[in-house]
Amino acid sequence: MTAAPSPTLLRRPLRLGPRGRWWFDVLLVAGLALPLLPAGWSVGLLAVGVALLELLPLLWRRRHPVAVFWAVTAAHALQVLVQDEPSLGQTAWPVAVYSVARYAAAPHGWAALAVSAVAALTAALDWTVGSPEPRVTVLTNAFLLGAVAATAWALGTLGRTRQAYVDALVERSERVEREAAQQVALAAADERARIAREMHDVVAHGLSVIVVQADGARYAARTDPDVAARTLETVASTGREALTEMRRMLGLLRAEDATGDGGLPALRPQPGLGDLDALVAEARTAGARVEARLPDPAAAGEVPDGVGLTAYRVVQEALTNVRKHAGPDVSVRVDVELTGVGRGRAVVLRVEDDGRGASADDDGRGLGLLGMRERVAVHGGTVEAGPRPGGGFAVSARIPA
């Protein structure tokens, strides 16, 4: 079952789409041009035409703000040449200044503000021709026009910076969400790899014991039925334990006692150094001659659980490979010891046999040795595995504890 996608940490604010923005600008231009209809009879068609030249470029103010600003500027310059009084078309100027400050880069906004200052003074001079107090009128008109343009520029700049800030927040939240999803995916991949290693160890070890015991029971059934019965009991017990570990790792086993459904044994903790003696005893039961030197149980209990499990799995895989590849009548030696103190403390182990060594037929995958190296590498340790000079095969590892 796939998990539902998590909501974005910061949603973008509601905005008009491309079609909505276009119609907004159409209505804006229409609203500004509408008063020209009744005024056309009094001001003349030329003034109305100039006003339309000032207003119509606003339809493209979002996509081409700089070009629209200069087009409006040119139309206003034309108005200065043909008119000496204000016009309704001049309402396009603050809209154009806002647009260039809002939708263009900051240098274009500053240029529009500077041009606005010059245009305000020019318009004030043009409108005050013949005024009884020209100096006061010019200053007043220039200040008012400049204030309108400066306000439009400030609002546009504020909108642009706010938009950039919101976009940065949204981009950051989306990046954090993507990184979180990647971390979850990596963790899931690591967990799948860990389960695959555990499954390999459990299945390979359990099946190798079952195969060896089943072969022994088959031969013993002809001569000693009691031995065959005990051997088959060991096969059944090993199979149940392997099945229990597999189901526990996959999260499919509910807590049951020994008398639960199927007669399966109850759940038990992950194995560690303290369980190596049982592992060696199981190998001996399977017919191998095993000589073991194991750490004291009290000292083994001081080793972290992860390190203990890794050491157990390495020894388990090594004994499994002995049964699979070393051949018959093999002697095995298992040495596990705790060395060093403090940060230099480590579990050092070695499993060696006198079997076929490099001449053994491999099963073609090498997943066991790969799993060993991956397990030990997690704890910063090292593994060496290969044929012995005098014959046989050896696996040695050092795991910091």
From TrEMBL:
It comes from Nocardioides oceani. Its main location: cytoplasm. It is found in: Cytoplasm. Its cofactor is [4Fe-4S] cluster. The chain crosses the membrane at residues 43-60, 110-130, 136-155. This is Oxygen sensor histidine kinase NreB. PROSITE patterns: HIS_KIN. It catalyses: ATP + protein L-histidine = ADP + protein N-phospho-L-histidine. Its EC number is 2.7.13.3. One of its GO terms (molecular function) is kinase activity. Member of the two-component regulatory system NreB/NreC involved in the control of dissimilatory nitrate/nitrite reduction in response to oxygen. NreB functions as a direct oxygen sensor histidine kinase which is autophosphorylated, in the absence of oxygen, probably at the conserved histidine residue, and transfers its phosphate group probably to a conserved aspartate residue of NreC. NreB/NreC activates the expression of the nitrate (narGHJI) and nitrite (nir) reductase operons, as well as the putative nitrate transporter gene narT. Keywords: 4Fe-4S, ATP-binding, Cytoplasm, Iron, Iron-sulfur, Kinase, Membrane, Metal-binding, Nucleotide-binding, Phosphoprotein, Transferase, Transmembrane, Transmembrane helix, Two-component regulatory system. It comes from the Bacteria. InterPro entries: DUF7134, HATPase_C_sf, HATPase_dom, His_kinase_dom, Sensor_HK_TwoCompSys, Sig_transdc_His_kin-like_C, Sig_transdc_His_kin_sub3_dim/P. SMART domains: HATPase_c (SM00387). It holds the Pfam family HisKA_3. Signal peptide: none annotated. Residues 313-401 form the Histidine kinase domain.
